[in-house]
Write a structure and sequence with these properties.
By secondary structure, this protein is of the alpha/beta class. The chain is about 30% helix and about 20% strand. The protein has an eleven-stranded mixed beta sheet, with helices on both faces. A four-stranded parallel beta sheet has the order 12-15-13-14, sandwiched between helices. The protein binds adenosine monophosphate (AMP) and magnesium ion. The site of magnesium ion has 3 residues, from loops.
């Protein structure tokens, strides 16, 4: 398949969006930016197009897709039931990086839901994503734009390497703003369960639905309800270990003295202690700025695709706020 690659400019935006929407309508695949990570999208009502997503990514069929809408009214096309609590979260966080699980309409294909009776829906805030869905006139099912098991694409160039020849179009609009995938939640009248942590944090959810308790599915052993979480994810090409910034210096030195080639992922605060590991050395940003860290996280993992090392040591982060999502991805990447 020939892949049309376009970099968005002031001048071509309208034209590109028009062409991309036609591809979606005609059953093709388009890679497009969202505020979290890039998505690999197809028309949610076209089974053949949906199957192509799984083929392009090498994605297991029981790993369901998130459906993206451009307007809250489109939710009616996907589910018949929106509870009061779900509506409160929609009002608080859409458009934005929160994916909510609903009971799906019978007419929605099992290919989207991975055989579940539920459907995951999100309304992205990114302008290109919003316009594309609107112009296509249908909700767009889109997992992250990457080969299954690899870190999600957060810049156009990463995606060229993995998906050229497998999709009809790649829209490159620079770096993803957030850099980790959306928060995925399931809610009933007793609790909110975070199936995947993201930029909408536990603390933010608690505020909106107080006193409803919020749990991480990890703690509740309820991850079978989010099938994607059982698969290998975000893996860099070399082994990764996540340890505290205090341990990282010692461990790196010991292993280096044993003749191993060590890669280091750390923060501005630690930068000067690791000069000797150049060029196998990546700075995520300021350790107190978790937005900056999450934005650069997958760049760090992909950086080591082209730097041959025996082991990558990455600094850990406190598991509060966005730190939970960062540590979740790092733990999976190192599993
Ligand atoms: P990605 O494909 O990288 O965008 O990830 C999508 C995530 O959403 C995966 O972890 C899926 O398991 C999860 N997901 C999608 N649909 C559902 C659903 N109906 N119920 C639970 N989790 C879902
Ligand atoms: Mg993914």
């Amino acid at each position: 398949m020939r892949t049309k690659i376009v970099k968005i400019t002031e001048g071509n935006r309208k034209e590109v969006l028009k062409k991309a929407a036609i591809i979606i309508k005609n059953g093709g695949l388009v890679v497009f930016p969202t505020e979290t990570v890039y998505g690999l999208g197809a028309n949610v009502f076209d089974d053949k197009a949906l199957s192509k997503i799984f083929l392009a990514k090498g994605r297991p069929g029981d790993n369901p897709l998130i459906v993206h809408i451009s307007d809250k009214t489109e939710l009616k096309e996907l589910t018949n039931s929106v509870t009061e609590n779900q509506q409160k979260l929609i009002d608080a966080f859409w458009p934005g990086p929160l994916t909510i699980i609903f009971e799906k309409k019978d007419t929605i294909s099992n290919i989207v839901s991975g055989g579940l009776s539920t459907i995951a829906v999100r309304m992205p805030s990114n302008y290109i994503a919003h316009k594309l869905i609107h112009l296509a006139g249908v909700p767009i099912a889109a997992p992250s734009a990457n080969i299954s098991g690899r870190p999600s694409g957060t810049k156009g160039e990463d995606i060229y390497n993995e998906l050229v020849g497998k999709v009809n179009m790649i829209i490159n609009d620079g770096d993803s703003k957030i850099g980790v995938e959306s928060t995925v939640i399931k809610i009933n009248d007793k609790q909110i369960l975070i199936l995947r942590p993201g930029a909408v944090t536990k603390e933010m959810l608690e505020k909106v639905l107080f006193p409803l308790p919020v749990f991480f599915a990890k703690d509740k052993n309820d991850l079978q309800s989010s099938p994607g979480t059982k698969y290998k994810h975000y893996a860099p090409k070399f082994k990764l270990e996540v340890i505290s910034k205090e341990e990282i210096k010692n461990k790196a030195e010991v292993l280096k003295n044993k003749g191993l080639i060590i890669g280091v992922i750390t923060t501005n605060q630690n930068k000067d202690s690791f000069k000797e590991y150049e060029p196998n050395f990546f700075i995520l940003g300021d350790e107190n700025n978790l937005e900056e860290i999450s934005k650069n996280l997958y760049n760090a993992l992909r950086f080591f695709d082209t730097h041959k090392v025996d082991l990558i040591l990455c600094q850990s982060f406190p598991e509060v706020g966005l730190g939970v999502a960062i540590m979740d991805r790092l733990e999976r990447a190192s599993a």
